[in-house]
Amino acid sequence: MVVTLSLSRLAFSFAAASDPSPLQDFCVAIKDTKNGVFVNGKFCRDPKLVTAKDFSFSGLNMPGNLGISLARIEYAPYGLNPPHTLPHATEILVVVEGTLYVGFVTFNTDNRLITKVLYAGDVFVFPVGLIHFQFNIGKSNAVAFAGLSTQNPDVITIANAVFASEPAINPDVLSKAFQLDKKVVTYLQSCF
After folding, report:
1. Cα separation of 106 and 66, whole Å?
2. Pairing assessment for the beta strands 113-118 and 91-97 based on DSSP bridges
3. In terms of DSSP H, where are the helices of 27-181?
4. Rounded to whole angstroms, how far apart are CA atoms 134 and 80?
5. Burial level of 168, CB count in 10 A (0-12/13-18/19+)?
6. Residue 61: C-alpha distances to residues 36, 97, 102, 151, 177 (Å)
7. Residue 155 to residue 145: CA distance in whole angstroms
8. Are 30 and 36 in contact (CB under 8 A)?
9. Beta strand pairing status for 36-39 and 123-126?
10. What is the C-alpha to C-alpha distance for residues 76 and 70, in angstroms, rounded to an integer?
11. Where are the beta strands (DSSP E) in 6-163?
């Protein structure tokens, strides 16, 4: 009986382990609580009022600022890090060379696109789990460093997941979901 109870407790401890999920996409901290929302014990700016300015900082290239770097990303001219999500990590991107057009899409609020053009020294934060991208809009190479809040962010590239799955998602499903002609879906699946 004791062995069974101990094994049950052990099994339950594995089954109960998980990453805590936030109650909303992100929380932009605020000092004045009058116009905020209270989430997970913190006052946050109303998600409908946030702008790209809330997720960026200029001047990291100036002396005296703290830099974070876990991955170096090099972008060819007009190179793209396509729309993807990091289900387990917040990402902070520091541009050290070139010009990047970056952005993410909120969900649970209104699927709003938040974008900004970044230059050397600029920083942008991509909240955990949100679809985001980086695109080099310059005619020369761009370089950035990305810091992630976990050792295992689990990258999911949206187009690959949807159009290159094995086995393939039924084209009728994708045709209806994306409101595309079935021939277009079949063509897109053949590209991956």
Report:
1. 28
2. unpaired
3. 158-163, 171-178
4. 6
5. middle
6. 32, 10, 18, 26, 44
7. 16
8. yes
9. unpaired
10. 20
11. 36-39, 42-45, 56-57, 71-75, 80-85, 91-97, 100-105, 113-118, 123-126, 131-136, 142-148, 156-157
The rounded distance, in Å, linking the Cα atoms of 189 and 125 is 32
Q: What is the pLDDT along the chain (192 residues), one digit of tens a residue?
A: 444 444 444 444 444 445 556 556 777 878 777 777 777 667 888 888 888 988 887 776 666 555 444 688 999 999 999 999 998 888 999 999 999 999 999 987 789 999 999 999 999 999 999 999 999 999 999 999 999 887 677 889 999 999 999 999 999 999 999 999 999 999 999 998
- pTM of the predicted structure, to 2 decimals: 0.68
Alpha-carbon distance of 80 to 119, in angstroms, equals: 16
